[in-house]
Each structure stands twice: as C-alpha cells, then as structure tokens.
Amino acid sequence: MLDADRLETLIRDNLLVTRLRVIPELVSTQDEARRLAESGASPGTVVFAHRQTGGRGSRGRRWYSPEGSGLYFSILLGQAGDAATPARWTLAASLAVCRACRDYAVPAEIKWPNDILIRGRKVAGILAELRSGPSNPVLALGIGVNVGQREGDFPDELTETGTSLLMEGGVDCGREELAAAILGQLSTIAGLMYHGDWAQVREDWIAMACGIQGAPVRLRDDAGVAAGPCGTTAGIDEGGALIVRLEDGSRTILHSSESLVPMET
Ligand code: BTN
C-alpha cells in the first residue's frame, strides 16, 4: 500500500501541490480528477490510487494497474494560457518522469510523445486531458509508472514490451519517494511553463528523447493498416508535434502516435 502519511511528508514543500488525496481503489484517477475539477478543486490537487480497475492509457488502451507495484496518480493543473496546450504538457510531464526515473540510476528515455522507456521497454506513460472546471478548463495530467513488478507479473500482452524500475535495476525504488521526485521535477518544469519558457522545456525534452531525429518510420494508411508511406523522423515542431520527412521529400506533422507504426528503439 502507498503510505499516504509518508507521501504527505515528502511533498510538503512542493509548491505545485495544493492538496493530496490517496484513495484505495478507483476506476481511474483521471475520472476522479475530472470529478474534482468539475466540483471546483483547485489546480495542484493530486489524487493517487493504490489500484485502478479501469486505468486508461492513451488511444483507448487500458493501463495495467495492480495494487502494490505501480504508481497511479493524476494532478490538476491550470493551463497557463493558450500556449500551454495538452500536447506541450504531455512533453513537460514526460520530461519530469524521465528525470525522476534517471535519479534511480536507470537509462530512461522518452519516446514521443508520452512513453518512458528503459532499454526499449515501457516503464511509464502520461495521459493529458482537458477538463472543464466551474470557470476555466483545467488540465488533468495522469501518470502511471511500473515500479516493483517482476518478470512474469505482467499480463501476456505486456511481457515483451513492459518493464519496471525494479526489473531494470533501479536502486531503492520506494513508490512514495519516486512520486515525490516526479512531483518535484514537475513543479520545476511547471514553473518554466507558467513563465512562458516552453523553449527551455522543449530543449530539455529533446535531450532526453529517442527516435525523433532520423529514425525510420512508417505511417498507417487510411484504413489504419501499416501500409502507408515510409519516412524518417525530423524533430518536433514548436507545438510538440512530430515532424516526419517522407520518401517523396514532403513533410508531414503528426499530433499523436496513432498513425505511426511503432518505431524500433
Ligand atoms: C499511456 O502511456 O498510454 C498513458 C498511461 C497513463 C496511465 C495513468 S495511471 C494514472 C492515470 N489514470 C489513468 O487512468 N491513466 C493515467
């Protein structure tokens, strides 16, 4: 079980976090964050669950959320103006998680836009969703990290692609400490976002990302089949979208990885 008192102590000085809730079981911390946003909860409200029965990943996928081994939480953030879009916050949050994982001596890197990988296998993911508040829309940033799973703990569909900090040799991965480290990094990065310094966040994100420059990719065709044009990645644009240079010399901009056939990493 996540120790709520310990977590509270560890994040006491975090300027971003205004309120902490730790709930034994939720369908999804994102749903709870939406409910809190609708009832007027302030930005900086964070909700953790020991386990989720319907944890959501991006593109309608499920997020495997058993009790005892993972970290599942959502934080409500004020958007900080039009420039701070969900796409940019997704990158900002992935930077925070990647940095916190590296504190545990693992070679974590970011796969655009929202995956944290270690040696090519996914250890964490981010889900950014805009929610309506009583006055302004608020952003719900959901973060899931595989912390203490062992080989064999993952469901079949994740055995090849999923990993945990423990499996990758992360040292002393207490979930409360990791959560505090992520929220600490997020607080620093949010400071940049709120001061309009997206350029710095983007630069820092690029330094930790893999596969965004010169990596061969294939796009899906209109039917969703991996039979679209081939190309190579050519960086991310100002908004955080992925630029792909196609074989015919044209460029296309991707806003989600939906039309991208998984890149070899
Ligand atoms: C992804 O990589 O597909 C995004 C995964 C996001 C998972 C987290 S766990 C906490 C929060 N609640 C959810 O239902 N999803 C996010």
From TrEMBL:
Matching PROSITE patterns: BPL_LPL_CATALYTIC
InterPro entries: aa-tRNA-synth_II/BPL/LPL (IPR045864), Biotin_CoA_COase_ligase (IPR004408), BPL_LPL_catalytic (IPR004143)
EC number: 6.3.4.15
A molecular function GO annotation: biotin--[biotin carboxyl-carrier protein] ligase activity
Keywords annotated in UniProt: Ligase
A cellular component annotation (GO) from this entry: cytoplasm
Name of the top EC class for this enzyme: ligase
Superkingdom of the organism of origin: Bacteria
Any Pfam family the entry gives: BPL_LplA_LipB
UniProt domain BPL/LPL catalytic: residue ranges: 1-194
SUPFAM superfamilies with a match to the protein in the record: Class II aaRS and biotin synthetases
UniProt name for this protein: Biotin--[acetyl-CoA-carboxylase] ligase
Source species of the chain: Candidatus Polarisedimenticola svalbardensis
